[in-house]
Design brief:
Length: about 70
């Protein structure tokens, strides 16, 4: 039971991280990345790990200030 709780906590933490990153960089990623991010977060296809990879790989560094 303890292993299940630990794995579940890690999965929830990664999902929350992916959600925060998607919201944070929403205006700095292209449309295709937005679609893949939402599919990964909402349907689980690819999961939050795919969402993290897509968002970090596709964000435009030129538009981000600060």
């Amino acid at each position: 039971v303890g292993t299940f709780i630990a794995i579940f906590a890690v999965i929830i933490a990664i999902w929350i991280w992916a959600l925060v990153v998607t919201i944070q960089f929403w205006h700095f990623i292209p449309v295709w990345a937005k679609v893949l991010a939402l599919v990964g977060l909402l349907t689980g296809v690819g999961g939050p790990v795919l969402t993290l990879i897509v968002v970090y790989a596709s964000k435009s560094k030129k538009k981000i200030k600060g």
